[in-house]
Design a protein that fits this description.
alpha+beta, Arc Repressor Mutant, subunit A, 4 domains, 6-stranded mixed β-sheet, 5-stranded parallel β-sheet, 26 helices, 15% strand, flat
């Protein structure tokens, strides 16, 4: 799981210059990117300082431009340099290197409520029998300032505040004295702080490189030499991953002829720290094994034209590639641990991760108490934001134990679960593969370590679990993550290997189809795709809608549609003329595929009840389909139409039952149904002669985005 935290305040920088690095990570499922914007509370100061490996280390190809050395540990002098870098300044001179017209603003104490001066100027103009514009006669610049401030006051009211010096100039131009508008004490405070500025630019980001729980358990239970070597491999993977991140996001954005252009840089500026444990659960006891790394990335880089700029299109490309970086990091760890220790993996659906074979799930669960506590407190279905808040609220203070005590504690707990810990570790990490393994061959099985492009394509484009399982389109950045996550044995250190694999996957016939690229022209991996099965599903739905138009399917006569009156009597209110026309059309049009469109709250379910009465009166069988079971119950209760989920209907279709005996199928929130599921339902309806009535809000975002076809 990729965790990316924006750093916008001095306090956040300070956290990441301590060995705990502001850590607030709770283990979670793979394949997700969480962006955290909030400043952590001071309660984060908990990390086991003596645990070993918790040294801040410089990272990035751009460090040389500032006289810093990659791989060097940060001492107090280096930490002072890091503070200046995160403030956009030179680490030695303190000179500002990165500026932004929007990032540096007056301090709140230097500001005054603008509305009071605007009112005073307007009052003065009225008393003198002139307009406010005439007050500034011959002073066009101040007139423009006044008009701009008046617009903001009209928009924001008393909340709009301006720097005292600006207001002083405006008052003087209007012939007023600022002290007559504001109180002496208030004005004195603003004047005292008039030169104080606040930099609210994004200073940088904290990227967490996490590992499956079984990796943490294995490292925590290995002997001292092996666990140190495993951690060294993890740091090697970290460095390889950071090089990839520099390829994807290590650029600045300049301007040429008024258009943004991408500008190459010498590399990124960052530092990293390793953590081996999660937050403690009980006072005096070490936390569970949780090996992960924090990489703090500064939001500036030296561009090839000699200018210092913010990076990655204001950080957007870091966010877009966070999942790819996370997946690449894990893939490199899988490759390195197999080559050095012979570690084998299996993909576990429950965690979504390539867990280590031989590390029992019950042992991983025993060492996941913090994640279990968060799930218990927040609920297993809670959002990532809710779980983060719960994590922050349940933190404990650090435990003052050394690395030996921590590891002894883990071993004792593991023995209670698996018995012979040494035997488990030996079986899990037996050592490097034999001489017949080779670079491209799986040791024990003799098969390829890298799946064929066709096999990769089948995995990453799987309709139920692949890139288009919940979205209709995907970008190359998303494909990078998906391909890396599909590699059981990981990937080699060649920086171009993952890109080439993605190219090979895209060339496999019958899967990816290029669609128009949207958005920025300077960002990386922006190429956009859909899959052929989605286009085929779209075409199938379109063709069936045309072929089944005006076919007399489940068509009632005008007299039979008069059942609307029965509904109105039962409901105790009359439908509007527009609603009556809609019900009549659905009942009498005879289209094999029909639709009832309305915004949320427009009474679509009520109209379905009126239709249901008409169908019941003529013995027409009907049923409903919704995405969720809760929605199925709601549609049934609101309309009287017996309803099942779309998945349940598709299961019936797979069993050969289809829509047998159903003359009307009402699909609720039809725009949110996946195109492939919709095509299957439409096909089953055509074979059974069932009329499909889709109801929903055409403005509601579909489950798999909007049509991908270009016009």
């Amino acid at each position: 799981m990729a965790w990316l935290t924006r750093i916008v305040a001095d306090e956040q920088v300070e956290y990441r210059l301590k060995q705990q690095a502001g850590c607030a990570v709770v283990e979670a499922r793979e394949g997700e990117t969480v962006v955290l914007d909030a400043v952590e509370s001071r309660a984060v100061d908990y990390r086991l300082r003596p645990e070993g490996g918790a040294t801040l280390v410089w990272m990035g190809s751009g460090l040389g431009a500032l006289g810093l050395v990659e791989g060097a540990a940060l001492d107090e002098e280096s930490k002072a340099a890091a503070r200046r870098i995160m403030a956009g300044c030179h680490p030695e001179t303190g000179a500002r290197l990165v500026t932004s017209r929007t990032s540096v603003r007056a301090h709140e104490k230097a500001r005054l409520t603008t509305a009071r001066l605007v009112e005073a100027i307007e009052r003065t103009a009225e008393e003198q029998g002139m307009t406010a514009a005439e007050v500034f006669d011959g002073k066009p610049k101040q007139l423009r300032v006044f008009r701009a401030q008046r617009r903001k006051v009209n928009r924001f009211g008393e909340a709009h505040r301006m720097q005292a010096v600006t207001l002083h100039k405006l008052a003087r131009a209007a012939g007023l004295v600022l002290a007559d508008v504001y109180g002496d004490e208030e004005l004195a405070t603003a004047w005292e702080h008039k030169d104080l500025r606040v930099d609210d630019r994004v200073r940088g980001w904290d990227l967490v490189l996490d590992l499956p729980k079984s990796d943490s358990v294995l490292q925590g239970l290995m002997d001292t030499l092996d666990e140190q070597e495993l951690r060294n491999l993890v740091h090697e993977a970290k460095r390889d991953t950071f090089r990839q991140l520099e390829r994807w996001a290590g650029y600045g954005v300049g301007s040429k002829d008024g258009e943004p252009v991408r500008v190459a840089t010498e590399g990124l500026l960052a530092w990293s720290v390793e953590h081996q444990s999660a937050r403690p659960m009980r006072a005096g006891e070490p936390g569970d094994p949780h090996l992960h790394l924090h990489v703090t990335i500064a939001n500036m880089a030296l561009c090839e034209d000699g200018e210092w700029r913010s990076i990655a299109n204001s950080g957007q490309d870091l966010h877009r590639h966070a999942a790819a970086a996370d997946a690449y990091f894990k893939a490199r760890v899988r490759s390195l641990t197999y080559s050095r220790f012979g570690v084998r993996r299996e993909h576990v659906e429950r965690t979504g991760a390539w867990e280590i074979r031989g590390v029992p799930a019950e042992l991983c669960d025993a060492f996941s108490r913090r994640a279990a506590l968060v799930d218990e407190k927040a609920g297993t279905d809670a959002s990532r934001t809710e779980k983060q808040a719960t994590s922050m609220a349940t933190k404990r203070d650090k435990v003052d134990v050394d690395a030996t005590t921590m590891r002894d504690s883990w071993r004792e707990r593991a023995e209670a679960v698996v018995g012979d810990v040494d035997a488990m570790v030996a079986a899990t990490a037996p050592g490097p593969p034999g001489p017949d393994g080779g670079a491209d061959v799986d040791g024990p099985g003799g098969g390829p370590r890298i799946p064929s492009p066709a096999d990769l394509a089948a995995a990453v484009f799987d309709p139920k679990a692949g890139l288009t399982s919940s979205e209709k389109t995907f970008t190359r950045a998303q494909l990078l993550a998906a391909v890396a996550n599909a590699l059981e044995f990981g990937i080699d250190a060649d920086p171009g290997s993952l890109e080439r694999l993605c190219d090979d996957v895209l060339e496999v016939a019958g899967y990816a189809v290029r669609v128009p690229t949207l958005g920025s022209t300077v960002m990386s991996s922006t190429a956009r795709y859909t899959t052929q099965d989605i286009l085929d599903a779209e075409e199938s739905v379109r063709v069936q809608a045309l072929e089944r138009f005006d076919t007399g399917t489940a068509q009632l006569t005008a007299d039979q549609a008069a059942a609307i009156g029965v509904f109105q009597v039962a409901a105790g209110f009359e439908l509007s003329a527009e609603q009556q026309a809609a019900v009549t059309r659905v009942l009498t049009a005879g289209h094999g595929i029909d639709a009832l469109v309305g915004v949320a709250g427009a009474g679509k379910s009520t109209l379905m009840e009126a239709c249901r009465i008409g169908w019941d009166a003529t013995g027409t069988t009907h049923a409903g389909a919704t995405l969720a079971a809760v929605a199925a119950q709601q549609l049934h209760e609101a309309s009287g139409i017996p309803t099942r989920t779309v998945a349940a209907w598709l299961a019936e279709n797979e069993n050969g039952n289809g829509l047998r005996g159903v003359e009307i199928l009402v699909v609720d929130e039809a725009t949110t149904v996946d195109d492939r599921a919709a095509a299957l339902l439409m096909g089953a309806a055509a074979r059974a002669g069932t009329k499909v009535v889709g109801i929903g809000d055409h403005l509601q975002p579909p489950a798999t985005a909007t049509s991908t076809r270009s016009t």
